[in-house]
Design goal:
The protein is mainly beta. The chain contains one helix and nine strands, in the order ββββαβββββ. The strands form three sheets. A four-stranded antiparallel β-sheet has the order 1-2-5-6, with no helix packed on it. A three-stranded antiparallel β-sheet has the order 7-8-9, with no helix packed on it. Strands 3-4 form a two-stranded antiparallel sheet. Bound molecules: zinc ion (ZN) (2 copies). One zinc ion binds next to loops.
Length: 139
């Protein structure tokens, strides 16, 4: 499996890079923005952070968040914190309960360890360094 890499974070609705300390585990996870299912031209985005829909800038189609997210896959490149195996995985772009917190969950292709991509701890907002970390308004 060779996952398509984003050329820029602008292509992503979600992008994160994590070190799974104190192990040598690490994760890079990203999800591509979705093309409009109606006109196939526009790349859907939230008009505002609090918006319940993702809108097409080209034809104006507004898709409810749940429907929108159902079609998106989370791509992951990882080094397993349990066995040290490096691999790639794809999982649903939907958080599940994992070790008592909400996380995108995938399994190590070698040892089967369930690995979670949790929400990042809140960091102070820096202007201009706007990586599209997913909003916090979910479920
Ligand atoms: Zn459209
Ligand atoms: Zn493993």
């Amino acid at each position: 499996m060779a996952l398509k890499q984003p050329e820029s974070v602008d292509e992503c609705v979600y992008f994160t890079r994590r070190a799974l300390l104190p192990t040598k585990g690490r994760i890079v996870a990203w999800a591509f923005r979705k093309r409009c299912p109606k006109c196939r031209k526009g790349v859907m985005a939230k008009p505002k952070k609090s918006s319940p829909t993702y809108d097409c800038p080209s034809c104006g189609y507004a898709e409810p968040k749940a429907e929108h997210i159902a079609d998106i896959k989370l791509n992951v490149e990882y080094t397993c914190p349990a066995c040290g195996f490096s691999g790639e995985a794809q999982t649903e772009f939907k958080r599940k309960s994992w070790q008592g917190v909400k996380a995108y969950v995938f399994s190590c292709g070698k040892c089967g360890e369930k690995i979670g991509v949790t929400k990042k701890l809140k960091e102070p907002k820096r202007k201009g360094a706007d990586v599209p970390e997913e909003d916090d308004d979910d479920e």
